[in-house]
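Justification of resources, computational component.

The compute hours requested in this renewal are based largely on the per-chain cost of generating structure records like the one below. Each record pairs the submitted sequence with a full structure-token output. That output is archived, and it is also reused by downstream analysis tasks.
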Amino acid sequence: MRCSIVTLFPEMFTGLLRQSILKRAQEHGLLEVNLLQLRDFAENRHQRVDDAPFGGGPGMVLKADVLERAVGHLRVAEDPLAPAHVVYLTPQGQPFVQADAKRLAGMAHLILVCGHYEGVDERFVATQVDEELSLGDFVLTGGEIPAMAVLDAVARLLPGVLGDPESFAGDSFYQGLLDHPHYTRPARWQPAAGQTSFSVPEVLLSGHHSKVRDWRRRQALLRTLLRRPDWLIRANLSKTEKALMELLASALEQDEWRLVDGTNCEDQMK
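The structure output for this chain reads:
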């Protein structure tokens, strides 16, 4: 996969691209990342890429012609059967979710455009952008951090990037549920002197793979119900799981459980 990032601050990506999964994906030829300095496409001696908004108001707006030249430069050598997909990162875009990451991972060439200042000329968006994405209902200084998040979320889904496909198959949201709790050594842990020690759930120490798998599934269902019940509507649940979720949701609404630490809920899931 090829990913091109149009930005005023390409140096912000240097550390990210030299670490961890993204570094390995590039070294193995699974991911190609191109950083494009937007100022290189300005046609004035001061490399100006923005101007004051028509109609007045504070701030500056990125120019449509400069952005078009940058994106056009990236399109020159593209495959006509697999044209580039242009994403503009903006607070006004649709919320970026795991389903978007899975979809974008199938693109041959992904172009991420990082906005800045008050935004970009709407004519560029209307004619050159395929979709607008947002990380959430908040405003950042620019589109670089959202672009990093999108790149990382997409890259880890590319075939071969993660050694074991199950590494992402169990991730939160990948199958419509939050992830189950995770534990590692030691099996019994005491946070500090005088505090109660905590043990790993016995089923995880049993070596019984089917029981472990069932426990993790139940815990994922329970955690999703408690933290993101809206996701259960789209989750792929069996009839038994649907009935159980409806029962637990009803009990929650009637405040029939003490939910200080989720213990009573977990008992219902056994």
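The first strand starts at residue 2 and ends at 7. Residues 93 and 133 are 4 Å apart (CA to CA).
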